[in-house]
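INTERNAL AUDIT FORM
Audit reference: QA-55
Scope: verify that the stored structure record matches its stored sequence.
Auditor: D.O.
Record contents follow.
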Amino acid sequence: MSTKMSPATTPAEAQDAVERVCGMIERLRDVIERETALVQKGELRDAAALEAVKAELAGALFAGGERLKANAPFLLQAAPASCAALKRVEETFRAVLQRNMVVLATAHAVSEGIVRRLSSDLARRVSPQIYGSTGQAATLNPKLGHPLAVSRTL
């Protein structure tokens, strides 16, 4: 997906440039919506498989956005309707992105809680069940605990 960096000089080029960026945003939005749905269903491997497509679209979108920024005054004058449509697409994209971030943060918190609980359960199993001189259960010596290895890749 290459986006030419030459400035738009005609209304048709301006409209085309804005519509290309709108198309990229919509494709990225679709990918992010799929990712969100997959994470909600717990299909993390499938969600992670979308990473390459997301990265490619984000890179192309960045380049297209830079072209639009460089030509903003002309674009607003030559293709005002397309610029207004771009603004609506961006607003929709922001809402989808916000929902995605909430879902990902929730999944992260849940998985972190699971790992902490697992680690705690493992540590409890390894620690001796004895009472100290005060009559209270002895606390686990952190130096005696067994390590828990977790793979961060999905």
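Auditor finding: record pair retrieved intact. The mean pLDDT is 85.
Action required: none
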